Amino acid sequence: MLERYVKKILSSRVYDVAQESPLQLANGLTERVGNTVLLKREDMQSVFSFKLRGSYNKMAQLSPEQAAIGVITASAGNHAQGVALAASKLGIKATVVMGRNTPDIKVNAVRRRGAKVVLHGDGYDDAAAHARELEQSAGYTYVHPFDDPDVIAGQGTVGMEILNQHSGPLDAIYVPVGGGGLIGGIAAYVKYLRPDVKVIGVEAEGSACLQAALHKGRRVKLPAETLDLFADGVSVAQIGKENFAIARKYVDEVVTVTTDEICGAVKDVFDDTRVLAEPSGALSIAGMKKHVAQSGATGRTLVAIVSGANVNFDRLRHISERAELGEAREAILGVSIPEQAGSFHRFCKQLGKRGVTEFNYRYAGGSEAQVYVGLKTDTLDDRQVLVKKLQAANYVVEDMTDNEAAKLHVRHMVGGRAQDSNSELLYRFEFPERPGALLKFLAVLGDRWNISMFHYRNHGAAWGRVLIGFQAQPSEARQLQAYLKKIGYRFWEESDNPAYQMFLR
Question: Which residues of the chain have pLDDT under 70?
Fold first, then answer.
């Protein structure tokens, strides 16, 4: 298998449109993680992503008959731009089906390159199913974004370049994983020439289809309603068949990372390069940092691939808000302090010279005040030391740094109280950002339960986060959840969330 792929990679026709992207030393990351970190800058391609390699290699090998009819594909965005560029270069008509959650920056870029865009469904899998229908009805050639040997070989040229550019000691290459085209191509080439180099996949926690497949020993399909949409470029429910055949033999490990860790990595890339990577583009950096922290590795040479920079500007608001949390540079605490003059001053004296990044409070009567406070920290250990110090000073402290409801919603709602808090159930949702999403929610829910609280935040075109309180008894929770499941949006019950208990009840 490997020899066949190496031959295909070496003969790939990618350099009609792609450049050999630089392998750049990341000084800041190198110093922080105690290993030499090299960034493979695929964000510098003309479509700001590695995806043009595989799509062009596939389309350059079409027969004249296939080229005359045209091609079709489905894509989260970056592959679509690669297909559109290849079609323009080769004079082929291209149709691209994209999920409605695709950031506008990617949709508009595809249209500008002359491809026809069809928006269908909530994500990649809906778009792919529709593209297959159009393929059959019109006779198009389907250019798969990852599950195709020619596409895999085109992406594998990234691995070829890495080994050509760095002939010295190399310990590991960290590769973002969506459908598996990039890691399949890199693993095939690197393991054939340098089997000592580890190839480590990195997946977003909410779309870890390769990790799930490796665990089961076969490909599995993640439920579409559970897929995390933040790193939309890797939001894929099932690893490709051909890709998994390579990965199960030649990928050494898979690391999964959280949204906060991805946001921290976006900041790291910016600090070292002044480039704003998209969430999936910074995925491998997040995985590299986490893997190094877990393994305690030092003095090694590590490569992480900056795979894309097609970030929607609106999403930067969320990324910047969460980056410090992903870097363990901020702690979010709920603290009970006396409801009396001077108590905030005394609390700050306990903090010393540590910076306060946020302080939310509203008078609610009683002898104690519940405050929501953000504090600057250096490390996870520093955060734990801080909590213990405050507890030693007789403060009641709830660490909310990893509490999604607290970070997304409660911080903006501190001080509110339900009139009948004993009959309220709280749920957190992810809504797809498209017209009618809220109306669909309300229509399915009907008039059975009154909504007692509603807080919505947009997160950059792909999805919105919603916190909703329902006037319902705990005994009605199972029936309420049965209704909520019919809607098809991801949700979590938060009725026992300490942030809710402290600030909203």
Answer: 76, 101, 103, 123, 325-328, 362-365, 416-422, 433-439, 458-463
Q: What is the pLDDT of residue 434?
A: 62
CA dihedral 45→49→50→52, nearest 10 degrees, is: -80
| Cα 279 from Cα 293, distance rounded (Å) | 20
Q: Which CATH class is domain 328-402?
A: alpha beta
User: Which DSSP symbol is given to 474?
Assistant: G
Cite the DSSP H helix spans in 71-148: 78-90, 104-112, 124-138
Distance CA 177, CA 283 (A): 9
Q: Domain residues of the chain, as ranges? A: 2-50+149-325, 52-142, 328-402, 417-503
Pick the CATH number of 2-50+149-325 from 3.40.50.720, 3.40.50.150, 3.40.50.1100, 3.40.50.300: 3.40.50.1100
Structure tokens at 71: 């091609």
> Please, what's the b/e burial string for 454-475 (b: 16 or more CB within 10 A of its CB; e: otherwise)?
ebeeebbbbbbbbbbbbbbeee
Strand-by-strand arrangement of the 330-338 sheet = 356-360, 368-376, 330-338, 396-399
Q: What is the dotted CATH code of the domain comprising 417-503?
A: 3.30.70.260
Within 11-77, residue ranges assigned H as helices are 27-33, 52-59, 64-69
User: Hey, which residues are catalytic here?
Assistant: 51, 307
Cβ neighbours, 10 Å, residue 442: 11
Q: Tell me how far apart the alpha carbons of residues 75 and 131 are, in angstroms, rounded to a whole number.
A: 10
Q: Note whether 443 and 463 are within 8 A (CB).
A: no
pLDDT for 450-498, tens place per residue? 788 888 776 554 567 788 888 888 899 999 998 888 887 889 999 999 9
Q: Please list the alpha-helical segments (H only) found in 206-258.
A: 209-216, 241-250
Q: Judging by DSSP bridges, how do beta strands 172-176 and 301-306 pair with one another?
A: parallel
- pTM for this model (two decimals): 0.79
